[in-house]
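Hi U.,

Before I forget, here's the chain from the pilot set. I'm dumping it here mostly so it's searchable later in email.
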Amino acid sequence: MDRITGPAITAVPATAHLLEPVIAWAATAPDRVVAAYPDGDGWVDVTAAALWDRVRSVAKGLIASGIAPGDRVALMSATRFEWTVVDDAVLAAGGVTVPLYETASAEQVAWILEDSGARLAVVETAAMAAVVAGATAWGAEVVVLDTGGVDELARRGRGVDDAELDRRIEALASDQLATIVYTSGTTGRPKGCAMTHANLVANVAQNIDAVRDMLHDDEVLLMFLPLAHTLAKIVALVATSWGALAVYGHGIARLPEDLASVQPTMIVAVPRIFEKAYDAAEHKAREDHREAVFHHAVKVAIHWSEHTHHVGPGTRVEHAAYDHLVYTKIRRAFGGRLRFAFSGGGPLGDRLTHFFNGVGVKVLEGYGLTETSPTLSINRADAWEPGTVGRPVAGTTITIADDGEILAEGPQVFAGYWHDDDATHQAFDAEGRFHTGDIGTVDERGFVRITARKKEIIVTAAGKNVAPAPLEERLRSHRIISQAVVIGEGRPFIAALITVDPEATDGLDAASVRRLVSDAVADANQMVSRAESIREHAILERDFSVEAGELTPTLKVRRSVVATTYADVIDGIYGAHTGV
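Structure:
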């Protein structure tokens, strides 16, 4: 049984809470610009003092609306400045935030509101308000941001004494609930992860400890992932603690424009964002009839990254030449100032990690779950190993069980699921270690590598265990493929459902697309045995989407939804091979 523990960490004080950095910046550097949000074609800067004043006014409005300490407040919105204001205001009032994804279905909304017992809901749009109203008989008030909801709360709060708000803030403690985050999940009904102030405060400290040497005093963070997800939330909290400028963009749909305008020094993203950046660069090279040049530049970047300290003069000259021809354009697509990025939520792979490093953008892959606040391990400047998720952060122990499952211990690990004692009991073993459900390894240098999701291991009819993730990752690395889902549970062989990238297939006929996909499948099969190889595949007519429920808001594939939606396609694959 492998076991690795991160560096020591100072225990979270009993009086610690998530608002301390916000209060501290407002007191010590009131004029420091800590946030910005879009307004027309420009951006509105927000100082530390203005942010804290806004949070206080909204918190008093929540108190006036009847929110008592411990009450839950639902927050359903895309990532925007007001999301953070309301989230902080809920905490200041002594409440607990219950985030809801903007894409959540009526059924999910109804379940989360009922299960959490939320006393009030703050939503972004009138359409979301209708979902809340129509999803349940829940009769509490709904405040809409787009129709001046924040201003309305501030007006209500004018009659609340500042002393009452101060008393609530002073009463905050590290063991109090801060948020209940419902796992979006790839299968099953969402479970509420009950996170305390201590869980999140500890994880902020752990993340800063890991990347402190990389942080500058003038960091600019572009926010575009959903703040309802703990990956985006923890990075926002890290930015607040450090004093970085957090710019709230227009979302993933307008990411290229926001990157060009904001010119961030760091971002947090999921692998699909980097895959799309690579695909866009390749597509542009193909349009300019420079595809061969681009592919050679890719090889040089990867080789340079893999052998930085051992490359010969020829590679250095080539790398410098391609920096002018290719790499600088890719850096410019990220805004031109991006020094490093965090990637989480799924495997990026060592090839793309080395490529972006060779281009001049250091990507730090990490690992964690909603239940762990989320960061358990991360790559860092002085301990960086592409293809892994880094070493455990401070105060964290990772153990590899006999069956390969990753077990986690640390101050960031939650205490349990809201109103679900059975699920909580099943999540921890007798030693108090949290069972992540992921399969992995720890190498001799302490780097953690994720190899599979325990529940996603496919067992074929012949009893062969197959991990789908490596095959899917290899398939997605091909320029023409957008998504891939490997299937074969209880079936005679492994197969795959594949979607193609519309931009990559522009101008190609159907026969060419089929040939390129077949080449990608053949390439992926080279990494596995015959019994694990993809014997058949189907190219689907459209890509997966969040709107259709096939992707989570952080762009993970929901296997159960895909399996249901394309049941006829799957049956067709295996029906054509009856008796195999």
